[in-house]
C-alpha cells in the first residue's frame, strides 16, 4: 500500500510540475509584456497575470506544497491591488515578481528533494518583500483616491511609512545572486512534455483504427491461402494414390479431367487472393505513408516553444551586466521538427549570451556613439524556397573587429602570416568559429572563453545546417543559421567506393559529374581536372577514409570496366572551399534520416552518423566539413610522394555464408595482396566462378543452397573451372569429412579451429 | 540461422551441447552457497567461455550483417541495426589484445549497457545463463591469456571467465571521440 501511495504522490507531483512550469512560463511572458507597455497598466494583462498566480497557488495547495502556496499568496494580493486600478507597476516590483517566479521555477525542478536552509531563508525574504510591496500599493491607492479600498486577501500590516528605496534596495544584491547563471533558470522551460493540438492527434487515432481493418483483412487473406494450400495437398495425395494402382486409359482420362477441374478452381482462387492482396498492399501503403506524414507533423512544433523564454533571458543577462537591450522576435510561429528545436536550444542561448556580452555596449558608451540607449537584438525566423529555415540573429552593438580577430589568430598560431594577408573580410570573420578565439579582452562567467562559437558551429553542422557571420565595426553583428525544417527531409547522395556505400548530404553536393578518364591530368604528382574553367585537384574518397580494409558485401559491379573509361566525381562545397571527390559509383539520391552512431561512438572523424536504407542496411553518412579538412591532409601527403603500392594481380574467390568469417577472410587475403571477390554461398560462388576469372577458390563447407563439398565437385566437373585450385576452410574436423573433401577434389583442407592467417596464405602461395 | 542447426548435427556442436549440459548440471549443486550470487549470460568466444552479469545485458541479437565505419580502432567491428537503433559492436579479443586463434562463428551480439554506455560484444555462441556465487570465484588465476586483471570478476573452478561488464563499459578506451583532423601546415 505504501508503495502505491508513494507512486501516486510521485505522479501527482509530476503533473503539478508540468502545470506549474506552464503557469510560470505564461506569467513570466506576461510580466515582460506588461513591463514593456509604457503605462504598465494594461488591465487585460494584469487580469491574465492575476489568474496565473491564482491557478499556481491553487495547484500548489492541491498537492500540499505549502511553501509555493505561501509565495503565491502575497503575489496574488499584489495583483488584486493592481487590478483595482489606479496604480502602475514599477520596475522594482517587476524585478521582485520575476525573482519570485525564478525561485518557484527553481523549486519545482526537483520537488522530491528537501528544501535547503538557504532556500528557506530566501523564501522568507521574498514573502516579506512581496508583502511590503502589497502594502505599498495599498498606501499608493489611498493616496491616489479618497475612497480607500480594503482588499479581502491582503493581510493588515502595521502601516509604517517606508521610503520606496528602503524596501527595494537591500534586495538588489540578492537578485544579482540569482542572476549569476541566468542560463540555469532557462532549463525549467524545456521539460520533457510537449503540447500537441487536438486536431493533430485526431487523425492519428483515426489512422490507427484504420489499421485494425487492415489486420482483419490480412487474417482473411491468410485463411484463403491456407484453403488453397489444403486443396493443393488434396490433389497431391489423390495423384499419389491413383498412381499406385494400374489404371485403364478410360480411368486415366477421367482422373485427368477431374484434376483439370480442380486446377481451374485452384487457379481461380489464387488469382482472387493475389488480386485482393494487391489491393491490400495498395491501401496499406497509403495508410502507412499517411501515418508517417501525420506523425512527422505531430513532431513539428512552432519555434515559439524555443523562443518564448528568450525575452526573459535577455532581460536577466542585461540586468546582470548593467546593460539595456530588448529582443524582437519574428516568424517564431514556423513549425520545425522537435528534434531540431531541441538541438538548437544550446547554440541559440549561446549566441544570445554573446550578443549581450560582446555585442551590446553599456548605455553610456552607446550614448557616446549616438546610438539609442536601449540596444536592439532581432531574432528573425524565415523559410526559404528549398524547405530550409533561416535564423537571423542580429544586434546593433559594437560589431566584430576583423583586424583584432586576425591579430589574435596570428598570436595563437591558428593561421600563418602568409594566410593572414590573403584573408578577405568574410574569411577573417569566419575565424571567430575557431576554438580558442574570443575578442572579448575579459573573460566573464557568461562568455569569453573562446570555445563557444566552435561548439555552436559544430552543433549546427551536425543538424545539416550552416552558420555564417556578418559584421560591421560599431554597427552590429548578424549570425545567420540555415537549417532543414525537418530531420526527415535530409536528402543524401548515395555513393559507392571500394564496395562500401556512403551517403553525402545533398546540401553539400554542388553536383555530380562523369568525366572521361583521359580528362584527368597529373600535375606535380597530383590528379587534377578542369571544371567550369577552374583546375581542381581530385581526391579519392577511399584514400581519405582509408576504406581499403573496410570491405562489405559482395560487389554488384565489376569496378575495373567503368573505372578505365569514365570517372565519377562528386563536387562538394563546404565552409567556402570546394572539393572534387572521386568515387566508384553514384548510386542514387534519396531521403535519409541521420541517426547517431550509438553511445560508444560519440564522434567519429569524417562520419556524421548513419542512415538505414530501405532494405535495412546501414550506411555511414559523411561529415563533409571534416572531410574537407582530412582531404587537405591527404593531398599534402600525396605531394610528398607517398603513393599507394600496386596490388598483386592474383584473384581469389571466397565462398562463406557467415558475414564475419567472410569479411575476416577477405581482409586477410587483401592484406596479403590478393584481389578478393566474395560469394555468400556455394551456388553464388559457382555462378560467379563461371562468369568471372579467378586463380583460386577458398570455400567454407557448411553453407546453405550448395555446400563446399558440392561446390568443389561442381568446379572439378566444369570444363572451364576444373583446373582452379580449391581450398576448403571448415569447422568440420573429423577424418571422414577431411576425406570427403579430398574426394570431392579439394586441394587443401584447413580446419577452422586451428586456423591462422599465415597457414592460409602459405597454402595459397603453394597452390598458385 | 539454418547453418547453425546443420552444425548441430556435426561434431563441433557436441562441445556446445556438452558445455550447456555441464552448466545445467552445476546449477543445482551451487545453491549450497551462502551468498546471494548473481545471474550471468554465458557465452563462448575464441575457444574460451565467458560470462557477463545479466544486469548489464540488454539483449542478445543475431549478428547477420554489419557496417564498417572507416577510421575506427580495430577492436570495433562496426555498427549494427537493432530494430532501428544503431549499436556499435566490439571485438573483445582485439580489445583485450588476445591472440586470435581460430575462425569463430561470431554470429551473436550481446548488447551491454549501463547508465552511461552501450555497445555490443561479439560472441561465437550463447551457452545459456547461470547463477554465479561469490564463493565460486577465484581471483588467483588472473593472468589468463594476458587478460587485464581489472576487467575480471574472477574465474570459476570449471574455468568460466566472469568479466566485469561495468568496468568494461566504463573503460575510457571504449569511448570514441575523434576531433577533425588537424590542419596541415
Characterization of the model:
The complex is a heterodimer of chains A (768) and B (185). Chain A is an alpha/beta fold. Chain A has 5 domains: 2-179, HPT domain (Four Helix Bundle (Hemerythrin (Met), subunit A)); 198-298; 324-484, Heat Shock Protein 90, CATH 3.30.565.10; 489-639, OB fold (Dihydrolipoamide Acetyltransferase, E2P) (Beta Barrel); 651-767, Response regulator (Rossmann fold). Chain A is 51% helix and 19% strand. Chain A contains 26 helices and 24 strands. In chain A, the strands form 6 sheets. Chain A has a 6-stranded mixed beta sheet. In chain A, a hairpin with a 2-residue loop joins strand 14 and strand 15. Chain B has a single domain, classed as OB fold (Dihydrolipoamide Acetyltransferase, E2P) (Beta Barrel). Chain B is built from 4 helices and 11 strands. In chain B, the strands form 2 sheets. In chain B, strands 8-1-2-10-9 form a 5-stranded mixed beta sheet. Chain B is globular, with a radius of gyration of 18 Å. At the A-B interface, strand 17, strand 18, strand 19, helix 21 and helix 22 of A face helix 1, strand 4, strand 5, strand 7 and strand 11 of B. Strand 17 of chain A pairs parallel with strand 11 of chain B.
Amino acid at each position: 500500500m505504501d508503495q502505491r501511495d508513494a507512486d501516486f504522490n510521485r505522479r501527482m507531483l509530476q503533473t503539478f510540475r508540468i502545470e506549474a512550469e506552464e503557469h510560470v512560463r505564461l506569467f513570466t511572458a506576461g510580466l515582460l509584456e506588461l513591463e514593456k507597455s509604457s503605462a504598465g497598466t494594461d488591465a487585460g494583462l494584469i487580469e491574465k497575470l492575476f489568474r496565473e498566480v491564482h491557478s499556481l497557488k491553487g495547484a500548489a495547495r492541491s498537492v500540499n506544497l505549502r511553501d509555493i502556496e505561501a509565495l503565491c499568496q502575497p503575489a496574488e494580493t499584489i495583483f488584486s491591488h493592481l487590478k483595482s486600478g489606479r496604480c502602475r507597476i514599477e520596475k522594482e516590483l517587476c524585478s521582485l515578481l520575476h525573482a519570485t517566479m525564478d525561485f518557484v521555477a527553481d523549486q519545482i525542478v526537483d520537488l522530491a528533494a528537501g528544501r535547503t536552509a538557504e532556500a528557506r531563508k530566501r523564501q522568507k525574504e521574498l514573502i516579506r518583500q512581496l508583502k511590503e510591496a502589497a502594502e505599498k500599493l495599498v498606501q499608493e491607492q489611498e493616496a491616489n483616491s479618497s475612497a480607500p479600498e480594503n482588499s479581502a486577501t491582503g493581510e493588515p500590516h502595521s502601516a509604517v511609512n517606508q521610503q520606496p528605496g528602503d524596501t527595494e534596495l537591500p534586495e538588489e544584491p540578492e537578485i544579482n545572486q540569482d542572476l549569476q547563471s541566468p542560463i540555469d533558470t532557462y532549463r525549467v522551460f524545456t521539460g520533457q512534455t510537449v503540447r500537441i493540438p487536438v486536431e493533430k492527434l485526431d487523425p492519428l487515432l483515426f489512422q490507427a483504427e484504420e489499421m485494425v481493418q487492415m489486420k482483419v483483412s490480412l487474417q482473411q487473406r491468410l485463411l484463403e491461402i491456407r484453403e488453397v494450400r489444403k486443396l493443393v495437398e488434396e490433389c497431391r495425395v489423390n495423384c499419389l494414390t491413383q498412381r499406385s494402382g494400374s489404371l485403364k486409359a478410360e480411368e486415366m482420362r477421367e482422373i485427368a479431367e477431374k484434376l483439370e477441374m480442380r486446377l481451374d478452381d485452384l487457379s481461380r482462387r489464387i488469382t482472387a487472393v493475389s488480386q485482393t492482396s494487391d489491393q491490400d498492399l495498395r491501401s496499406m501503403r497509403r495508410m502507412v505513408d499517411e501515418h508517417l506524414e501525420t506523425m512527422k507533423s505531430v513532431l513539428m512544433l512552432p519555434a515559439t516553444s524555443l523562443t518564448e523564454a528568450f525575452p526573459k533571458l535577455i532581460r536577466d543577462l542585461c540586468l546582470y551586466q548593467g546593460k539595456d537591450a530588448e529582443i524582437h522576435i519574428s516568424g517564431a510561429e514556423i513549425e520545425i521538427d522537435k528534434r531540431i528545436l531541441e538541438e538548437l536550444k544550446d547554440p541559440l542561448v549561446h549566441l544570445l549570451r554573446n550578443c549581450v556580452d560582446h555585442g551590446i555596449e553599456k548605455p553610456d558608451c552607446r550614448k557616446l556613439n549616438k546610438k539609442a540607449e536601449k540596444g536592439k537584438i532581432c531574432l528573425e525566423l524565415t523559410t526559404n524556397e528549398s524547405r530550409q529555415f533561416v535564423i537571423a540573429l542580429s544586434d546593433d552593438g559594437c560589431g566584430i573587429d576583423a583586424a583584432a580577430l586576425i591579430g589574435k589568430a596570428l598570436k595563437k598560431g591558428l593561421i600563418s602570416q602568409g594566410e593572414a594577408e590573403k584573408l578577405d573580410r568574410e574569411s577573417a570573420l569566419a575565424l571567430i568559429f575557431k576554438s580558442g578565439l574570443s575578442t572579448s579582452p575579459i573573460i566573464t562567467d557568461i562568455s569569453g572563453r573562446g570555445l563557444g562559437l566552435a561548439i555552436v558551429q559544430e552543433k549546427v553542422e551536425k543538424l545539416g545546417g550552416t552558420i555564417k557571420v556578418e559584421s560591421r565595426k560599431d554597427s552590429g553583428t548578424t549570425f545567420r543559421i540555415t537549417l532543414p525544417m525537418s530531420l526527415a527531409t535530409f536528402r543524401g547522395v548515395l555513393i559507392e567506393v571500394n564496395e562500401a556505400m556512403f551517403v553525402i548530404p545533398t546540401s553539400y553536393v554542388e553536383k555530380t559529374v562523369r568525366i572521361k578518364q583521359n580528362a584527368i591530368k597529373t600535375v606535380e604528382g597530383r590528379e587534377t581536372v578542369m571544371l567550369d574553367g577552374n583546375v581542381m585537384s581530385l581526391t579519392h574518397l577511399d584514400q581519405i577514409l582509408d576504406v581499403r580494409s573496410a570491405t562489405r558485401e559482395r560487389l554488384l559491379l565489376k569496378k575495373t570496366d567503368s573505372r578505365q573509361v569514365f570517372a565519377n566525381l562528386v563536387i562538394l562545397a563546404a565552409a567556402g572551399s570546394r572539393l572534387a571527390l572521386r568515387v566508384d559509383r553514384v548510386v542514387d539520391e534519396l531521403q535519409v534520416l541521420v541517426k547517431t552512431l550509438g553511445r560508444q561512438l560519440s564522434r567519429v572523424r569524417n562520419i556524421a552518423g548513419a542512415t538505414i536504407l530501405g532494405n535495412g542496411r546501414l550506411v555511414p553518412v559523411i561529415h563533409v566539413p571534416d572531410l574537407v579538412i582530412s582531404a587537405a591532409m591527404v593531398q599534402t601527403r600525396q605531394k610528398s610522394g607517398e603513393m599507394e603500392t600496386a596490388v598483386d594481380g592474383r584473384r581469389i574467390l571466397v565462398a562463406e555464408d557467415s558475414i564475419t568469417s567472410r569479411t575476416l577472410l577477405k581482409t586477410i587475403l587483401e592484406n596479403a595482396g590478393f584481389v578478393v571477390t566474395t560469394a555468400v554461398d556455394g551456388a553464388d560462388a559457382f555462378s560467379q566462378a563461371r562468369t568471372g576469372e579467378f586463380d583460386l577458390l577458398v570455400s567454407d563447407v557448411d553453407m546453405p543452397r550448395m555446400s563446399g563439398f558440392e561446390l568443389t565437385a561442381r568446379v572439378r566437373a566444369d570444363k572451364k573451372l576444373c583446373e582452379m585450385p580449391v581450398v576448403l576452410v571448415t569447422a568440420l574436423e573429423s577424418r571422414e569429412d577431411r576425406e570427403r573433401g579430398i574426394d570431392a577434389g579439394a586441394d587443401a583442407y584447413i580446419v577452422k579451429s586451428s586456423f591462422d592467417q599465415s597457414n592460409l596464405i602459405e597454402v595459397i602461395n603453394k597452390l598458385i | 540461422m539454418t547453418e547453425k542447426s546443420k552444425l548441430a548435427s556435426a561434431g563441433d556442436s557436441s562441445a556446445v551441447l556438452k558445455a550447456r549440459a555441464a552448466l545445467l548440471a552445476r546449477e543445482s549443486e551451487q545453491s549450497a552457497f551462502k551468498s546471494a550470487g548473481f545471474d550471468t549470460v554465458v557465452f563462448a568466444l575464441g575457444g574460451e567461455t565467458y560470462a557477463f552479469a545479466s544486469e548489464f545485458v540488454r539483449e542478445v541479437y543475431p549478428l547477420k550483417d554489419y557496417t564498417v565505419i572507416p577510421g575506427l580502432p580495430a577492436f570495433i567491428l562496426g555498427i549494427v541495426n537493432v530494430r532501428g537503433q544503431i549499436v556499435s559492436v566490439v571485438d573483445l579479443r582485439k580489445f583485450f589484445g588476445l591472440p586470435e586463434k581460430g575462425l569463430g562463428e561470431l554470429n551473436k551480439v550481446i548488447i551491454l549497457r549501463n547508465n552511461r554506455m552501450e555497445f555490443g560484444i561479439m560472441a561465437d555462441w550463447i551457452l545459456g545463463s547461470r547463477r554465479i556465487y561469490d564463493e565460486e570465484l577465484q581471483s588467483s588465476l588472473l593472468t589468463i591469456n594476458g587478460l587485464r586483471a581489472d576487467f575480471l570478476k574472477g574465474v570459476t573452478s570449471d574455468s568460466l571467465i566472469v568479466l566485469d561488464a561495468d568496468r568494461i563499459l566504463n573503460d575510457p578506451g571504449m569511448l570514441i571521440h575523434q576531433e577533425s583532423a588537424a590542419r596541415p601546415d
